[in-house]
Specification:
single chain; 344 residues; alpha/beta; two-stranded antiparallel ribbon; 9 strands; 29% helix
Length: 344
């Protein structure tokens, strides 16, 4: 039978007790020494000059100096003020700490510069007399100038118009949309220069709310070019017309109906129709011209002939297709002698 193992005894032997007491006492002494040394180092560090200085305190050490920000005002923009007697007796700036000086506001001595917008350049007035388009226009006599009418009823001339109104060869009309239909065939060679001058004088009376277009015709029909299909009564649009009129010359035959039908496409209130009564329109063409005038535009017909207006035996003007066209559209018919237009 096996014998049980002996149990370990938890009692401390007598020979070890003195040694344990010595080790415990030495640990406490070593811990105390370390704590005393750390406290001494902290006290010595706190007594240094850098740690003793407080905010705003001047250091008396020779190597210490003040630290701060100094605001300086340029002499050109801020003149130095003259010190008064009271200020002279006060402490000098050197004896005053930098942080206690209030900063001086910096103000510009220059007055404010007013800003102005550039004004648009003045544009020349476009109208009759602008060379070379105004060449061939008859002069105005003193008698007609007194009455406000150009010389000679047959010579035409733009009359003074009311608001919303313009005129061509003394035929005045009101409206918002105008179309000028001008014959440029070979037979209108003498008249064309005067017609251009009258056209520009008429356009000068339109405002920017009024619209217009110009149709020239001979064997074929052409219109002046613009981005918006029609022009407005502005200087910019009138300048476009001036540039394009320089390329218009008299040439070819006469085909009037297509020109009138083209004018209807712009829905005008008023049409100024400049042509001659030679080689008249047929009855069918005249009927088409009146029937297809769906906008109800007034057609003012200005007939150019050579010499006085033809009359019958009783002195009444002979009827022609232009008179019928004007009467059928509630317009006016006017006869002009082309020889007087070309007179110097």
């Amino acid at each position: 039978m096996a014998t049980p193992a002996p149990r370990l005894s938890r009692e401390i032997p007598d020979w070890l007790t003195p040694r344990l007491a010595w080790a415990a006492g030495s640990g406490w002494i070593l811990s105390a020494c370390l704590h005393v040394g750390a406290a001494t180092a902290i006290v010595l560090a706190s007594q240094s000059p850098g740690c003793r200085a407080t905010r705003g305190e001047r250091l008396s050490d020779a190597g210490a100096r003040e630290v701060g920000i100094v605001l300086r005002t340029p002499a050109a923009s801020q003149p130095a003020p003259t010190p008064t007697s009271t200020e002279a007796n006060a402490a000098s700036p050197e004896s005053t700490p930098v942080h206690s000086r209030p900063p001086s506001p910096i103000a510009s001595a220059e007055p404010p510069i007013p800003l102005t917008l550039p004004r648009p350049a003045e544009r020349p007035v476009i109208g009759r007399g602008a060379p070379p388009l105004g060449a061939g226009l008859p002069p105005t006599s003193p008698a007609s100038a007194a009455t406000g009418n150009p010389a000679g009823a047959s010579s035409g001339g733009a009359v003074r118009s009311e608001a919303g109104e313009t005129s061509l060869f003394q035929v005045a009309a009101k409206g918002r949309r105008f179309v000028y239909v001008i014959d440029r065939s070979s037979s209108m060679d003498v008249v064309l220069a005067a017609a251009k001058g009258e056209l520009l004088a008429s356009l000068q009376q339109l405002d920017r709310e009024q619209k217009f277009q110009v149709v020239f015709f001979s064997n074929r029909t052409t219109t002046l070019k613009t981005r918006f299909n029609v022009f407005s009564g502005t200087d910019e649009d009138r300048e476009q017309v001036v540039r394009q009129l320089q390329d218009v010359t008299a040439d070819g035959g006469t085909d009037r109906l297509p020109a009138l039908l083209k004018a209807y496409e712009y829905n005008p209130d008023v049409i100024f129709f400049l042509t001659d009564s030679a080689d008249p329109m047929s009855a069918r063409e005249l009927d088409d011209a009146l029937r297809k005038n769906r906008s109800g535009a007034q057609i003012h017909c200005i007939d150019f002939g050579e010499g006085p207006e033809p009359t019958d035996a009783s002195g009444r003007p002979l009827p022609n297709f232009l008179q019928k066209l004007a009467a059928g559209s509630r317009g006016r018919y006017v006869y002009r002698d082309a020889r007087q237009l070309a007179a110097p």
